[in-house]
Specification:
Blueprint: E1 15-20, E2 32-37, H1 44-51, E3 70-76, E4 79-83, H2 94-110, E5 114-122, H3 129-141, E6 145-150, H4 157-170, E7 176-180, H5 189-201
Parallel strand pairs: 2-4, 2-5, 5-6, 6-7
Antiparallel strand pairs: 1-3, 3-4
Bound molecules: guanosine-5'-diphosphate (GDP).
Guanosine-5'-diphosphate binds next to helix 1.
Length: about 210
């Protein structure tokens, strides 16, 4: 990553840009973006805040209404972090859930700007049903995936390593990787930022369907 010359603290430059509730509201599909996904309560907001060194960046995503939107944070024109809605919490009716699922599916399938997905998991409950669905979807659509095993501080070092090895065993593609993370302690933040920078700024863009 040393070949990328980025401004100091580049990761703290993201600002909320817009919430997308329907595919027609998506920004023009011409830039680069990286999405953050995870079930609710895995610590996705805490991870986003830690990676961007912004105490309350992701609070925006939790405002009423925004939990049903793809929330865009802009670095520079056309360069975005996208916070995907968390799943498994809101007591919403079935029709609404279908609307989200459709938007998410459309986004993952069609979005050419999407360079990769950070999939956040709670290290104590890795690879749940939602995670498997995201992995399967990413594989089908040819989207690279980097898994953050968050809350690593909740386990001993040895136990955390064991979970990481187990998860690594499930990863099959060259575009799939995982690491330990703790939004609370800051563990793994540099590694995560490097992955983010590679996806957002590396000159070699992924072609559709290529990992
Ligand atoms: P989200 O719903 O996925 O956005 O999760 P939040 O960021 O709101 O975090 C959910 C809960 O997990 C909060 O109580 C956080 O303080 C806690 N949490 C998040 N990350 C960590 C972590 O790395 N370690 C520990 N111990 N707790 C965490």
């Amino acid at each position: 990553m040393s070949e990328l010359e980025l401004p100091n603290n580049w990761y703290s430059r993201f600002e909320f840009k817009l919430g997308v509730a329907a595919s027609k509201q998506l920004p023009p599909d011409v830039g680069t973006e990286v999405a953050f996904a995870g079930r609710s309560n895995v610590g996705k907001s805490s991870v986003l805040n830690r990676v961007t060194q912004r105490k309350a960046l992701a609070r925006t995503s939790k405002l009423p209404g925004r939990t049903r939107e793809l929330n865009y944070f802009e670095y520079d024109e056309g360069i975005y972090l996208v916070d995907l809605p968390g799943y498994g919490f809101a007591k919403v009716n079935e029709a609404m859930q279908k609307t989200w699922a459709r938007l998410l599916e459309y986004y993952l399938r069609e979005r050419r700007s999407l360079q990769g997905i950070f999939l956040i998991m709670d290290i104590r409950h890795p690879l749940g049903e939602f995670d498997q669905q995201m992995l399967d979807y990413a594989r089908t659509c040819g989207i690279p995936m980097h898994i953050l095993l968050n809350k690593a501080d909740k386990l001993s070092k040895g136990a955390a390593r064991n979970v990481m090895l187990q998860v690594q065993n499930e990863l099959i593609g060259p575009g799939e990787s995982c690491q330990l993370f703790s939004a609370l302690k800051g563990t793994g933040v540099e590694e995560a930022r490097q992955q983010l920078a590679t996806w957002l700024f590396s000159k070699e863009k992924k072609s559709p369907g290529e990992l």
